[in-house]
Amino acid sequence: MNVFRLVGDLSHLLAIIILLLKIWKTRSCAGVSGKSQILFSLVFITRYLDLFTNFISVYNSVMKIIYLVTSLGTVYLMYFKFKATYDSNHDTFRIEFLVVPVGGLSFLVNHDFTPLEILWTFSIYLESVAILPQLFMISKTGEAETITSHYLFALGSYRALYIVNWVYRYYTEGFFDLIAIVAGCVQTILYCDFFYLYITKVLKGKQLKLPA
Amino acid sequence: SFKAAIKDEL
Predict the structure, then answer these.
(1) For A115-131, how does the pLDDT look when each residue is reduced to its tens digit (9 = 90+)?
(2) Which residues of A are less than 8 Å from B1 in CB distance?
(3) CA–CA separation, A42 vs A54, rounded Å?
């Protein structure tokens, strides 16, 4: 555990909590992509199956359980409790175009051809593109609420911090995992356009609006 | 080891 990894994990947790609080306080999930939230839940479910097979640390298990419960909670709020506020007309990304290729790739490129390892690989690849329905939705409506942009900034920062963590681990432990690194870089690159808008607009007190 | 290492991450 190093500081980049820890701050990355906390940033990830902060993102999830920001989104949950936004939905809970406003009693609305307008502007949030339910499809991205379903994909993130699928990411956690397929990655954290090792909760039952492999104990690493109390921190590791507790965080896994928190991520699982909070992401499933978000999906519950969106598709059940506050379903009437869900903006499905603008959430039209076809997730099968992500899940099917990612599923195929995880069978072809993995560390070990075993069920748990393939599911772990699937979750890493899927996470890298799971935000696309949300970004697609923002590009369709042309704007995002400020609280939603804080959510996206915290979520994007998390994987960027993980990349720094992997560089650090390579130099201090000689450790690297190419699957995680490549997917993590793809994931972070997808946020670059958003990061630019966030820094130039949201941090200066303006709402995030795309040029018409 | 190589694979055990990544699994300590989230």
Answers:
(1) 999 999 999 999 999 99
(2) none
(3) 20
